[in-house]
Amino acid sequence: MxxxxxxxxxxxxxxxxxxxxxxxxxYPNGKQWIEKAEALKPKLTETIVKPATLVELVQNENxxxxxxxxxxxxxxxxxxxxxxxxxxxxxxxxxxxxxYFTFKLKTIWGAADSPVRFRLTFGEVPAELATPFDPFPxxxxxxxxxxxxxxxxxxxxxxxxxxxxxxxxxxxxxTGTSPYFDFGISDIQFKALTxxxxxxxxxxxxxxxxxxxxxxxxxxxxxxxxQTVYEDGPKRDRRLWVGDMYLESLAxxxxxENHNLTKRCLYIxxxxxxxxxxxxxxxxxxxxxxxxxxxxxxxxSLLYNVTLKNYLQxxxxxxxxxxxxxxxxxxxDIIFNYVGEDGLIDYERANKExxxxxxxxxxxxxxxxxxGLMLFVLNETYELATLLGKESExxxxxxxxxxxxxxxxxxxxxxxxxxxECGDDQQISYASQIWMILGxxxxxxxxxxxxxxxxxxxxxxxxxxxxxxxxxxxxLINCNMQAxxxxxxxxxxxxxxxxxxxxxxEVYDPNNDFLSPYNFYPINSYCHAWSxxxxxxxxxxxxxxxx
Length: 547
Hints:
Radius of gyration: 26 Å
CATH class of the largest domain: Mainly Alpha
Number of strands: 14
Largest sheet: 9 strands, antiparallel
Helix content: 40-55%
Structural class: alpha+beta
Number of domains: 2
C-alpha cells in the first residue's frame, strides 16, 4: 500500500512538472530561440582607461544637484604618497565608463602584518558621492548603490573589484590597516566594456556645436548600454527591458549598426515569453536567461512588434522576421482582448491586470495613451505582415483601426479645445496627445493644433522624463512641426549637457534636479538607454537637426 502511495505521488509530481514545462513553452521553438540568442551573444570589446586627475567635491548651488567635481591634482600625486597619510581621495576617470576597477598596492616600508580595508564608492555624477547613503530612504534595493568594502590580504598586490560598475568618479577611503607598515596605491586602471564596435560617421559640418555635443553624449550613452544585451542602465537595473530595447535599436540603426544585438534580444524575449505567449517586460541574463516573473507590461509587450518590424527594414533579414512572426501575431491578442465592439479599450480592466507604464509621471491617466499606442502597434504590425506577405493572417486589423479611431474621436476628443481628455476630471496631458498622433488618429492640422494647445496649457501634465520626450519629438516630426522638434531636442537634452552630463540620464525634469521615482536621487541611473535617442533623430533627420 505504501509503495502504491509513493507511485501515485511520483506520478502527480511528474504530471505537475510536465504541465509546468508545457505552460512555460507556449511556443514550440522557445527553447531553440533561447539557444539561438545565446549563440548571438557578443564578445565585449575592452578598453583600458587610466585616470589623469584627482578631484574634490565642492558645493555649488548652480551645479546639477548642488555639487561639482573640481580638479585638485594629477594622479601621480596619489601614486607618490602613502595612502595612510591621505586616507581619502577621489579619482576622476575623465569620462563615464562601464566595467571593472583595478589598482595596485605597493609597500613603502615594513612588512604587511595585517589585511588592509578600503571603502570604494563609484559615482556617475558628483552628488552621488557627496550624498550620504544611510539611512537609506529609497524604495528599491539599496544594494544598487555602488559602494563596496574591499579587504585585501596581501601587500604588494594587484586587486580587481569583482562587481562591474558604471561611473566617472571613484572615491577611495582607507578604513582599516596596521600602524606597523606603510603602503601606497599605484596603477589605477578601469577596463571599460561594450559590444558597440563600429565608429559612427561624423555629423555634417553644418550641425551646430550643441547638436554635435548632444549626439556625442547620446552615442556614449548608447555605447555604455550596449553590453551582451541592450541594457536599460549599466549601473541599474542592468537588464533587458523591451521599451528600452526598442529605442536603443532605433539609435543603433543610425550609429553602431550592431544588428545582431537586436536579433539576440528579439530571440531571447520571444523564448522567455509567459505561458500565454505574451512578451514579458524584462529579462535577466544571469545565472541563466530568465524573465522577471509576472512582469506584464502592456505597452512594452506591444512594442516588441514594432522592434521586429524595424529590425526587418534595417537588415532585410526576412528569415528571422518570419521565425518570430508568431510572437508578433500573438501580441495582437492583447489588443483584441481589451478592445470592445465599440472600439474603446477597457481601460479599467487593462490597468488592473497589466502594468501600463508610458512615463514616470505621477497621476497620469493613460486611457488615451494606451488607445493611441494600440493603434500605433496595429499599424506597424500590419506593415510587418505586409512585408512578410502575411496580410491574410491579420485581416481584421484594418477595420479595427478604423473603429478604434472613430471611438477615440467620439469619446476622448474635445472638439472645442482640440485636445484628448481622460477620466472624470477630463485630465489633459502631453502623453494623450502624443500617442493619439502617433496612432494616426488626427490629421496634420489637428495634430499641430493639439500639440500647440497642450504646450500653451499650464495645467497639462508634461512629460516626466526622456522616455516620453522621445515620443514627443517623434509626434512633432510626424505632424511637420520640424522647427519645434529641433528646439525641444536642443532645449531638453541640451539642458542635461549644460548641467554637466557625461551620459544622458534616466530621469530629467528641467524644473527639479532631485526628482526620483525611487525616493532617492543618487540611485537614479545617470546613463540610461531610453535617453540615447537624440542619436536617432539627429542622424535619421539630418535636414531638421544638422542644418
